[in-house]
Design brief:
The protein is an all-alpha fold. Helices cover 76% and strands 0% of the residues. This is HCP-like protein.
Length: 195
């Protein structure tokens, strides 16, 4: 598949295109046997990672590559989502972030589905917060800081806490965190001038 070749050549995925295809094929085989409960899926995911000597993050990267390179109606698009969801269940913070962004940017849903989507987003945010606080994941620190920066408006809420998380993410190499932090200071100065 050309998308795996491009991703491999640009170092977006850490496995060769042939190995990537083999992983996706093996996942499809295992998926047919997957127990619908999370424990069964996680066991199959762990088997897949051990069999190919890969990390859950590799599953995330393969899923993202597949998702970006296949049309929405393709069955591979569903496989891509399943790979990312599996990586999330295996504890990969980058998978959680990908799923969070996807859920957040989904088109508006009917009221009957909006509550479920809101619960899903809150679940991802809980995982992101935990990964930032407990594991020190810099990408999660950035997402958590960005989320907090929007809580309570420009003149209150959790902006000071948000600044701390953005600073932490920036210090750990997330350049975008410095940009967001600077934007917050500019916004705060504008609010102070208006008072």
């Amino acid at each position: 598949m050309d998308s795996f070749m491009s991703a491999y050549n640009s170092k977006a995925i850490p496995v060769t295109p042939t190995l990537a295809l083999n992983i996706v094929r093996r996942y499809a085989e295992l998926r047919g046997d997957i127990d619908p409960n999370i424990k069964g899926r996680v066991e199959h995911g762990e088997t897949l990672c051990q069999e190919f000597k890969i990390s859950p993050k590799t599953l995330t990267l393969l899923g993202i590559t597949l998702h970006k390179s296949t049309p929405p109606t393709s069955s591979l698009r569903a496989t891509a989502t399943h790979l990312i969801t599996l990586a999330d269940e295996l504890g990969d913070p980058s998978a959680t972030i990908a799923l969070y962004h996807r859920a957040k940017s989904s088109p508006l849903l009917p009221d009957s589905q909006a509550a479920a989507r809101g619960a899903m987003i809150r679940g991802y945010l809980n995982k992101i917060e935990r990964a930032a606080k407990v594991e020190g994941d810099p990408a999660c620190a950035f997402i958590w800081g960005e989320y907090l920066s929007h809580q309570g408006g420009l003149d209150g809420g959790r902006r000071e806490e948000a600044r701390g998380w953005l600073r932490t993410a920036g210090e750990k190499g997330i350049a975008e965190a410095w940009l967001r932090l600077g934007r917050m200071y500019i916004d705060d100065a504008s609010v102070a001038e208006m008072k």
